[in-house]
Amino acid sequence: MKKLMTMAFLVGLFVLSACDKGNQDAEYLNGDISYINKDTVKVKDVTSKPIHIENLGYGMFSVYDSLIVFWNPKFSHHFFCIYNVDTEKEVGFFCNQGRGHHEFSSVAPVFQFFKTNNGLETTIQDDNSRKIYFWNISESISRKTTVYDTIISYNDLELGKNSVLSDLFYQSENTFLARKKSVYFIEGETPFPYYIKWRLSDSITHDYHVYKKIEMDDNADFSLQDRVYSHDAIKPDGSKIVQALRLVPQINIIDTKTGKITFHRLSDVSRVSLFDSKRDDGRVYYNSVQADDKYIYASYWGKQQWDAGFGTKSPFINTIHVFNWEGQMLYELKTDRTFFRIALDPVRNRLYTANLDTDEMYYIDLNEL
Fold first, then answer.
1. 3-state secondary structure of 224
2. Which residue, among 173, 124, 129, has the nearest Cα to 146 in the 3D structure?
3. Across residues 26-36, what is the average pLDDT?
């Protein structure tokens, strides 16, 4: 028995050393990195169910209960179109395009829903006017016109002229989280985006630097911003943010209360590196991420970048990794249809997607798992 335990210890030590050998990524991370052994992960085959609503060029979408909120900047006069899953009918178009009163030249898709005493709401960030609009979806549907409960300015927030905010999340009353990113090269600044938290009555109250600050110089590689590109989601209670990285098989978890950041990478492909160009294998790993209070869902590819040219078919992405909020990988779901980009309905516990080639929409019922 002692010999077996010793052998197991040496094998584990070898795996860890093999993971870290020559990989300098850990030197850039503001936290501990752990490696996930997929051999212990349960693999489940799952069957999807179609819905009779076609994603007819409506672009990206989010789902809450019976509502699908489509986003597409190519709509004629609005940014969002809402459909009802149960009636399979279009509800209406909302949030006007333009340069007039309560109009936008550009807005991001819906990344987060939350319930208030006024109904179902989400936030819309207008970076041009530096304002945040609380869009009351329930009232908008009822009145058949766009209703904003509150409009808040963050013009006094000291961001600097070189920075923009993205991935805006509403954490609690008057408290927000957003990713701050530099838009062009300035010597002496770090190239890595990072999260900030602020309250309306204060300036920035906390920084969450996922990667260690690296001051830029004339020889610095500003493409490092692209290397750390991730798909992000927030835990519904606002206590954590997950980042699923595109170019390495890794998720980052940011604890917004303690500031602790942890990193979790698949061990069988851990030789891939964010910061060592010689270890760039040209593959795309995580393509989308969603989260609820218990689990993180990330669609996984793990193969070479596909041809994204006009008229080419999308890749058959049929793997979804399921993690808990401690970064443990619990399941690997194998789907019967492609799940390129996923949208979680936290009420009915479904994972939706749309086939980019056929416009067919369907979902996985997570309750059946």
1. helix
2. 124
3. 89
Of 91, 88, 66, 87, which is closest to residue 78 (Cα–Cα)? 91
Strand order in the sheet with 283-291: 42-46, 329-335, 319-324, 295-304, 283-291
Decide: 131 and 142 in contact? Cβ < 8 Å: no
For CA atoms 34, 35, 36, 39, give the dihedral sign.
negative
Helical H segments across the chain, by residue range: 2-20, 137-143, 224-227
What φ, ψ does residue 73 adopt, rounded to 5°?
-65, -5
The position carrying tokens 């309250």 is: 199
Distance CA 328, CA 35 (A): 10
Beta-carbon contacts of 84 under 8 Å, excluding residues fewer than 6 positions away, are 66, 67, 68, 91
**311-364, pLDDT tens digit by residue?**
677 889 999 999 999 999 999 999 999 999 999 999 999 999 998 888 899 999
Nearest CA to 282 out of 319, 247, 243 is that of 247
Q: Which residues pair with 286 in a beta bridge?
A: 300
CA atoms of 63 and 83, how far apart (whole Å): 10
Sequence-ordered list of residues with C-beta below 8 angstroms from that of 274, at least 6 positions apart, any chain: 25, 28, 227, 228, 245, 247, 248
- Of the candidate ranges 2-16, 17-31, 52-66, the one whose mean pLDDT is the lowest: 2-16
Rounded CA-CA distance 361/354 in Å is 4
Cα 313–Cα 319–Cα 324 angle in degrees, nearest 5: 140
- Could you tell me if residue 67 is left (phi over 0), alpha (psi between -120 and 50 degrees) or otherwise beta? beta
